From TrEMBL:
<feature type="transmembrane region" description="Helical">
    <location>
        <begin position="250"/>
        <end position="274"/>
    </location>
</feature>
<feature type="transmembrane region" description="Helical">
    <location>
        <begin position="53"/>
        <end position="75"/>
    </location>
</feature>
<keyword id="KW-0472">Membrane</keyword>
<feature type="domain" description="Major facilitator superfamily (MFS) profile">
    <location>
        <begin position="20"/>
        <end position="435"/>
    </location>
</feature>
<dbReference type="InterPro" id="IPR020846">
    <property type="entry name" value="MFS_dom"/>
</dbReference>
<feature type="transmembrane region" description="Helical">
    <location>
        <begin position="12"/>
        <end position="33"/>
    </location>
</feature>
<dbReference type="InterPro" id="IPR005829">
    <property type="entry name" value="Sugar_transporter_CS"/>
</dbReference>
<feature type="transmembrane region" description="Helical">
    <location>
        <begin position="171"/>
        <end position="192"/>
    </location>
</feature>
<keyword id="KW-0812">Transmembrane</keyword>
<protein>
    <submittedName>
        <fullName>MFS transporter</fullName>
    </submittedName>
</protein>
<feature type="transmembrane region" description="Helical">
    <location>
        <begin position="343"/>
        <end position="369"/>
    </location>
</feature>
<dbReference type="InterPro" id="IPR005828">
    <property type="entry name" value="MFS_sugar_transport-like"/>
</dbReference>
<feature type="transmembrane region" description="Helical">
    <location>
        <begin position="87"/>
        <end position="105"/>
    </location>
</feature>
<keyword id="KW-1133">Transmembrane helix</keyword>
<feature type="transmembrane region" description="Helical">
    <location>
        <begin position="111"/>
        <end position="132"/>
    </location>
</feature>
<dbReference type="InterPro" id="IPR050814">
    <property type="entry name" value="Myo-inositol_Transporter"/>
</dbReference>
<feature type="transmembrane region" description="Helical">
    <location>
        <begin position="318"/>
        <end position="337"/>
    </location>
</feature>
């Protein structure tokens, strides 16, 4: 392993692609850990800082507000500085935010630190999937980009395990552990190559060719792919390009998934899993330990999803299982089935919902968003995808506990079940199958009007004929 031009490591073919995906996905690990650790730390923070329900929601949601800002800003930065440097900026913010949050002695400083961590998470969620997608071969792009989501849920699981193991220690240590992966991400990215598509879009054709030749099986495959990139090459497009009719199907599919991924309730369950289990009759220690099982379930579901997206396709149909699980969960709370068998019904329903949702909708969000946009506005489009995700996440994290107080847990989970059912219909109607297609092929489908899985004009004509 040697150092090459632009600080990149001298690996070749699949080895370099795997190395790139692994190091980049560390951003997802931080994403998951820093968003997940609050569910365990919150049990201590509430006592130390005397937080009421609103205070707990604000501390929890500060990171989401930061992420919303970070992902929108990251689009322009990645267009100007490149994908790799943008990830390095996010890594630096992870380090700064972690130091501040671990040393916070007031609610205001705690919120500020969570905002900084949010900026890092927003930037990572916007750019890491694009970076991996733009450097991966079509036949492996699905599993490699899903590796980012796998890192996210692994980070969540690690945060749950850490929270349980450190339940009798300081919450500061819980947060401080995040410095290690942040340092790995920053140092590792310094040795990786730039995205070949970003290089081509910025007129650095020969540099793009060199990168592609290192990450493809043969020079002929690399040169053919570069020809396809240049054939569709355009200048960086302004934000207004996303509103044009030919780009709109990509916008609807990707942002729709981003919004529904949150409104289906997956992060609400993740953030407040210990609280849910405590309300079901488990003690605090048991609630934390049971949450670890939720995280492990998310990891296995994502591993399965990573296999499925390249073998079954992106439009996997597991959401009906999530609907059933949420109906059962809502019924358990509506009937006050707490303690004993009722508590374990709650655990089983939460586990089933987590697996079904994570293995379908949550796997697709970053992958589809990184695939469907034309190169000229891909970074800005992904900013909207990440913005939709974090905006919806902010709403959910700010309202879940209050929603449970107003509607009751039963109606809250039934409401999430209805959204999951709608999401199933939406995917079938608006999200295309992208398995095995190059990013340039998908761009051509946008331009020739064959992108959407259902031809709306043909559907209207058929309905009128009836």
């Amino acid at each position: 392993m040697m150092q090459g031009t632009n600080g990149s490591m001298r690996l070749s073919g699949n080895a370099l692609t795997n190395f790139i995906a692994t190091i980049s996905a560390t951003g997802g690990l931080l994403f998951g850990y820093d968003t997940g650790i609050i569910s365990s730390a919150l049990l201590q923070l509430r006592n130390e800082f005397h937080l009421d329900t609103l205070g707990a929601e604000v501390v929890t949601s500060a990171i989401i507000l930061g992420a919303l800002i970070g992902c929108l800003v990251a689009g322009g930065i990645s267009d100007r500085l490149g994908r790799r440097r943008t990830v390095m900026i996010a890594a630096a913010l992870f380090l700064v935010g972690t130091v501040i949050v671990a040393s916070a002695h007031s609610v205001a400083v705690l919120i500020l630190a969570r905002l900084i961590l949010g900026l890092a998470i927003g930037g990572a969620s916007q750019i890491v999937p694009i970076y991996i997608a733009e450097i991966s071969p079509p036949e492996r792009r699905g599993r490699l980009v899903v590796g980012f989501q796998l890192a996210v849920v692994s980070g969540v699981t690690i945060s749950f395990i850490t929270g349980y193991l450190l339940r009798d220690s300081s919450w500061r240590l819980m947060f401080g552990i995040g410095m290690l992966p942040a340092l790995i991400l920053f140092v590792g990215m310094a040795f990786l190559p730039n995205s070949p598509r970003w290089l081509a879009l910025n007129g650095q054709t020969e540099e793009a060719r060199m990168v592609l030749r290192r990450v493809r099986a043969t020079d002929e495959i690399a040169d053919r792919e570069l020809d396809g990139i240049l054939e569709n090459h355009d200048v960086q497009a302004p934000w207004s390009e996303l509103a044009k009719p030919w780009v709109r199907p990509a916008l609807m599919a990707s942002v729709g998934i981003a919004l529904l991924c949150q409104f289906t309730g997956i992060n609400a369950v993740m953030y407040y899993a210990p609280t849910i289990f405590a309300d079901a009759g488990f003690g605090q220690d048991s609630a934390l330990l049971t949450s670890v099982a939720v995280g492990v379930g998310m990891v296995f579901a994502t591993v399965f999803g990573g296999w499925a997206v390249d073998n079954w396709g992106r439009r996997t149909r597991l959401l009906p299982g999530a609907v059933i699980a949420l109906v059962v969960l809502g019924t358990a709370f509506a009937m006050h089935l707490t303690g004993g068998v009722g508590a374990w019904i709650t655990v089983a329903a939460v586990m089933a919902y987590t697996i079904f949702n994570t293995g379908s909708l949550s796997v697709a969000i970053w992958l589809v968003g990184a695939e469907v946009y034309p190169l000229s506005c891909r970074s800005k489009g992904m900013s909207l995808v990440a913005g939709g995700h974090w905006g919806a996440d902010l709403v959910i994290s700010l309202t879940t506990l209050s929603l449970v107080q107003v509607l009751g847990a039963g109606w809250t989970f039934w409401l999430f079940a209805a959204v999951n059912a709608f999401a199933f219909w939406f995917v079938l109607r608006y999200v295309p199958e992208t398995k095995g297609q190059s990013l340039e092929e998908l761009e051509r489908r946008l331009k020739n009007g064959t992108f959407a899985p259902v031809d709306r004009a043909a559907a209207r004509a058929e309905a009128q004929a009836r």
